[in-house]
Design brief:
By secondary structure, this protein is of the alpha+beta class. It is 31% helix and 16% strand.
């Protein structure tokens, strides 16, 4: 779609193997590093796209987000990342058990909205795509947030953000309140869906693994192979239980958005972790999901969500606010994102303004 509209395609950017985790490294491609500090990760799985956006290698960058893979690298690299409602951006071939969302990583909200105008066009091969809506995503971007009802929840899924991250994210929410939004701090509206989510995630990886010839499986990232093999052992009843839990949580969030237009959280509880590892050592973590509690719930519930840069922490690394809308409410998320961008222009990587 971008090529049809005259975009000049510069190349493909790095990701982790099959998008299985929240950092960008692989046995084939090596370690992709954060342009703000090469000792840190750029996030993932669409980490190369975030690096390219932050450094100005290109203007428009495409990400895929099955559990945070647009928003994690956007937050760590200080760019804008937008995950549309599931099915808004048609995808072929399909996969990921209706977890995979697609969208832009850019240096401005307007560029993301312009890109959405293009990539949301219909594709008859995607049987799960939403009906095409020829809306102009750039329309109304500067209409502001006056009267929008925003729920602020830093403790979603039991998350405990670092103090500096929490302060910057809360300051960003205060900016929206100063511009007329009605902000309420709330308790988490969802139970923690991680156990059920991990069932779907493992089964989705097992689907990929099964199609790889046995002779090539020794070449795989060992972490991907392990989660895929675990997925092979999940029976139909566990999978159906997970799907039932997902439907319940989708209902919960649907009702939630009759009271609130947006849910706001920190995008990540920490600034970028060390490069070359799946999770920090010495913190009782066993999975990249341990340090990314805010992202995957909204793949689970299929809602639009954006990672909006909101400042630099004491270590000089970017921090982001997550804005989550009701299903199909892309316009509300974009408008609030733009209001924050206008009030506090996004920090630019030194030397790449």
């Amino acid at each position: 779609r971008l090529a049809e509209d005259g975009a000049v395609l510069l190349g493909k950017t790095a990701r982790c193997e099959f998008g299985w985790k929240g950092v960008t490294d692989s046995p084939l491609g090596g370690v992709s590093r954060n342009p703000w500090d090469p000792r840190r990760t750029c996030g993932g799985s669409s980490g190369g796209a975030a690096i390219a956006a932050a450094t100005g290698m290109g203007v428009l960058h495409l990400g895929s987000d099955g559990a945070g893979s647009i928003r994690i690298p956007a937050a760590f690299c200080g760019v804008y990342g937008f995950k549309a409602t599931f099915g808004r951006v048609p995808a072929y071939p399909p996969g990921r058990l209706a977890l995979g969302h697609y969208g832009p990583l850019t240096r401005s909200v307007h560029d993301a909205a312009l890109m959405l105008n293009c990539i949301t066009r219909p594709d008859a091969r995607d049987a799960l795509a939403l009906p095409y809506d020829p809306v102009d995503h750039c329309a109304g971007l500067d209409d502001g947030v006056r009267g929008l009802r925003i729920a602020w929840c830093p403790s979603l899924c039991g998350a405990v953000p670092e103090a500096g991250v929490a302060r910057l994210a809360r300051d960003a929410v205060n900016v929206l309140a100063e511009r007329g939004a009605i902000v309420t701090e709330i308790a988490p509206p969802l139970p923690t869906p991680r156990a059920h989510f991990e069932v779907l995630w493992a089964v989705s990886m097992a689907q990929i693994y099964r199609r790889i010839p046995e002779a090539q499986r020794a070449l795989l990232d060992p972490g991907f192979a392990a989660i895929a093999q675990a997925g092979l052992g999940i029976d139909a009843n566990r999978l159906l239980d997970a799907i039932a839990a997902r439907l319940r949580d989708g209902t919960t969030m649907g009702v939630f958005h009759t009271q609130y237009d947006l849910l706001a959280t920190p995008q990540m509880p920490t600034t970028a972790i060390a490069a070359g590892v799946d999770y920090p050592a010495g913190q009782s973590m066993t999975s990249w999901l341990d340090w990314s509690p805010y992202a995957y719930p909204f793949n689970w519930t299929q809602q639009p969500a954006a990672s909006v840069p909101c400042g630099l922490a004491a270590d000089g690394l970017p921090v982001a606010l997550q804005l989550v809308g009701a299903r199909f409410a892309e316009a509300t998320v974009l408008r609030a994102s733009r209001a924050l961008e206008r009030a506090r222009p996004f920090p630019q990587l030194p030397g790449h303004a």
